[in-house]
DNA sequence: CTGAAAGCGCTTACAG
DNA sequence: CTGAAAGCGCTTACAG
């Protein structure tokens, strides 16, 4: 046990003003980079700030200015899932990097399922000037009404029926899925199965739609469609089930590389050869795509860039600029060994 | 392009007071759960809050109370490293879980190398009531003086020469390394190499010390000691170098499972059998330890629990409670196939 | 149990 | 270029 040392009081504007022999208004002007301050007053203030190690109190500043200079990145997933999915890491990285070059701070909010209302209150309580929302599930109504109170930008199309304008940065998931499926069809395969993503998310729905379009365009019917949750475990399990049920297929499209990774493992365990027996493609060009056996042919999206754009759009909106509601990013077909 | 819709103004205490027909003081009391409010006044206020969807402004509250009800978790690593290391994920998870059960919010701060001063200013600017600091490098002096301004709790011993009281949650790294090394020695191995961690961190230094102690206690001398950075890549590279230099060893202790994972790959590539030719152990019982070939015998620390304890101690300190400066957590030897 | 009033530490027209 | 003063939205003794 130790004794509680007294907390050193933080220097205030007032103290700086006294030491510099000017008014608080002048100190405030120096701190905020106004040019309407004479050189010697500025010098005195700057020295006083240094001597007192003064840092402006954010709460006071926020209250006076009506802005906080910080934005939130909300991930409505639990912590375990957040860390397991390389997609999140990349988006955070991109956003963090962009924000680092601005006057804003990025606050990462993992809204645990335990109390989503806490996050909503935080957002509504004037802690941030705007919010980035990732991985939005339709059932999650938490943010539906926030759009009218706070600028927001979504990563991935929301399924919200919200009346407000919704700003989204996304890829064309339908086209991406169509393209990945066509790679399989081009191999001459005719019995195509899909392991789809959650159907309460735009990305989950749209990738299924794209698969169906490609299959039908080729005059075929899907051999099987199963719904997973984007994780390797779900891909593995679903593939085991398909094999166990003797489903007949020679092509497989998975809505995420993570699920593809799991499915590939299950195929290998069953002695089914890829791509000889089954041609496989997926969406996401992440570490799972690269480290699977064989490496996956995928549609690359660029989540780091997505995070960057999201942050850029949000900050522009906060500053009153007009930005497009929809930003659709390009994707890229990456040919590896699984197709 | 879209038109900028007008932002709906957030309801204020004042508005709630008017609608409920009471003073602002009474509204404040209801919001803060004071019991000195008559039932009917309370009812009226609660209804007004509901109707106006009122959420207290945090900045104003912070300013008035002198506290923010939020704490920061600072990780002085870049985003890529943060996401690559399962240790961080677990600590965050533990801390987030503990904080979720309190009135506090957890803010995750990835202090990019780009501008560490920004983080310091944030911490000093009254944004949070306290800070958790992870993975502290000796060279990083950013937080040295913050301890007198803000309650802080470190994850892992700091090498700071700071005069303030320092609160740390850690394992006994020396004992852990000694124990892991003794497992190898018990196999009758006499030529022990170590891949150590960064020597500017407590965990890096102490695990090397423990290794040396165990080796000397057995009347031996280390066969080789190389310094890595805890990542799989560094373990892989160092092991390639040892093999390339024909270093003669029959035992290997790595300061992290990640480095052990990489070293095991390099050993396999060189056709060296584990544990037949080389007996290997490591610290950290994470996904790398479990998925390496063969699975690693390790000393498990419990980072999730560490995060929990860190958060608990910090919040207690904020609330003025006395807590011990040092919290040393137990570890556990996990026997797998590599020793 | 309740309200009037001061105060938290800033910013920002306004006047000079 | 500079300062006095009002105001941001809360909380909290103080008085009743």
TrEMBL record, chains A, B:
CDD domains: HTH_LacI, PBP1_LacI_sugar_binding-like. It holds the Pfam family Peripla_BP_3. Keywords: DNA-binding, Transcription, Transcription regulation. SMART domains: HTH_LACI. Residues 11-65 form the HTH lacI-type domain. GO terms for molecular function: DNA-binding transcription factor activity; transcription cis-regulatory region binding. InterPro entries: HTH_LacI (IPR000843), LacI/GalR-like_sensor (IPR046335), Lambda_DNA-bd_dom_sf (IPR010982), Peripla_BP_I (IPR028082). PANTHER family: HTH-TYPE TRANSCRIPTIONAL REGULATOR GALS, LACI-RELATED TRANSCRIPTIONAL REPRESSOR. This is LacI family transcriptional regulator. The lineage of its organism: Bacteria, Bacillati, Actinomycetota, Actinomycetes, Micrococcales.
